[in-house]
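ugh ok fine here u go
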Amino acid sequence: MTESTPQHDAIVARIGRLERENRRFKRGAIVFLVMIASVGLMAQTRQSAPASGQKPKARTPAAPAAAAAPAGPTAVEAQGFILKDANGKVRAELGLAGGSPSLKFRDESGSALVSLSLNEGPAGPVLLLSDPQHHASVALSVLEKAGPQLSLTGERADIQLRMGVTPDGTALELSDKDGFTTSIGNGIVPKNGQVKKTSAASIVLYNKERKVLWSQP
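structure:
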């Protein structure tokens, strides 16, 4: 058995004091951790719960789907349309002329070089193409009881080519600057004081006074 000495007793007492202090430190650390955990839990609960005296916000209903935009107009109604260039000059017109529709295309000087219209009497469409001076031109028409007609006019009005298909047949007529004319096809020819109908195989030559120079058959 170990004998007790003052030095030994002091060491034993010091060890016992350290053990007691260590146990108190452990209990304090545990209490501190519990307090920290409690504070965190309370803060989290407070954030999730609505504030006192405040009603919970109502859920905003989803906005209804936007209605489809209405379809645009399928037709535009007017009595005339005018198309102008960057300089304000009229270059095209669509309107009514004497109650009949017409379309015109103009050059920079305002001269109508292309015209498309509906004729009232005899009824039918008419297309006219011309140069800026309105000397040379091409006219195409399909008129009631007259059939399709094509007319080409040169720089001089007496230089022409006309072709048409009528109920009586087909005719082609050519004229020059001297006034002479050649007619090929169906037509009416004065001969010996009488009127003679020609066939599609007929050729008739006329002078300046529209008198027959030669015909066959």
